[in-house]
Structures are given as C-alpha cells and as structure tokens.
User: Fold this.
Amino acid sequence: EGFIKGAYRKFNIKSTELTPGDDFAMMREVLTRRFKRLLKEQEEEANDEVPVFDEKADDDEPEATDVPDLVLIDGGAGQLGVACEVFASLGVSGVSLVAIAKGPDRDAGRERFFMPGKEPFHLEFKSPVLFYLQRLRDEAHRFAIGTHRAKRAQTITSSPLDEIEGIGPSRKRALLNHFGSGRGVTRAGLSDLESVKGISKAMARKIYEHFHDKG
Assistant:
C-alpha cells in the first residue's frame, strides 16, 4: 500500500527553554505530547467516555485513532535512548522502537539499526525491508522539509517589517535571511543592520529607530 498522507501530522515545538538545534529535547517534547494524548484517549475509550479535548490544544496534536505497532526514530543510540525514556515515564507498552542511523558518508544501504536491548545491526543491501524503511525515512524528510519551507514562506509574507515604509519584498527577504526571523531584525543593532547587503545606512537607521525609539 502507499502512504496514507491524510494521517501525516506535524508538531510545532512549544517549549521556550529549548536550545535551538537540540534534537534530543525536541524529540522528547514531541513524543511526550503524542503519547500523552494517546493514553488519554485510550483511557476515555475504556471508560466509555466521549473524548473531551482541551479547546486550547493545538490542531497539530494527532488524534490517536490507531495505536502504532512500531515507532521509527531518525537517529542512533542517543535518539533511541530519549524515546525509551519517554515511553518508560509514560508507561507506554506494546510499541516497538527502532532507530535508523545513516551509514558512513550517508550512503544508502549502509544504515545501522538500533533497538532496545540489542546490538546495532545492518540489513542486507537488497533487502525489501531495508528498501521500505528507506522510503519511509525519505518520505518523512520530504514532508518535514515541505512544512519548513511553507512556514518560512509565511514568515516572509507577514512580518514586523511590513510596518516600515520603503521595505519591499527584496529588502525584507535580505533582512530575514540575514537575521533568521522578524524578531531577529527587531533586536538587531544599528551596525548589524548596516551590514546587510542591499540595506543602506539611511534605511538601517530607519529600521533601527522604528523598533527602538518608541518612547
């Protein structure tokens, strides 16, 4: 069968305490949110209750209509360890965990697999199982990259820079690419703004004064 794209879900990281790029912390948050909701729905179903979801809950909290038999983790022993910790803390059972680490030089076919209580192992290069797992991983990457691009496009479309006269699409794109976000621009110093390609000293001062001379 093909992939059930209607069942795809994305999570927006909520924690404000995470260090940017901390994959372990982000994985811990996502797995905790996903399986907390799963366990809650299972409990409500067992008690013949009608699920009552918090109105403040994000739309990206997946409904647990199906309990997974297997969770695949993109990573190695460290990522697998995080998943095991989450499952243990929540009391999740009956769900297998496998982490898939890229092979040397990211060569397809040389992936290493990690499972709790087992030594890392490889699958035969021509194994249908290996091919299928590669497809799953690549599809997850495709979906994640597409989501990231969509959010980045949305950020470029709407930002605090829209309030400043003289900031067109090209200047806005240059500023966002340089500082990473609209918030980064609002916090930038004058000399930093002047260093952006395509931003004159006069425009840099205009941007700086817009966000700093408020009183």
Notes: Residues 52-60 have pLDDT under 50 and may be disordered. Helices lie at 23-46, 77-90, 128-157, 169-179, 182-186, 190-194, 201-212. DSSP finds seven helices and three strands in the chain.
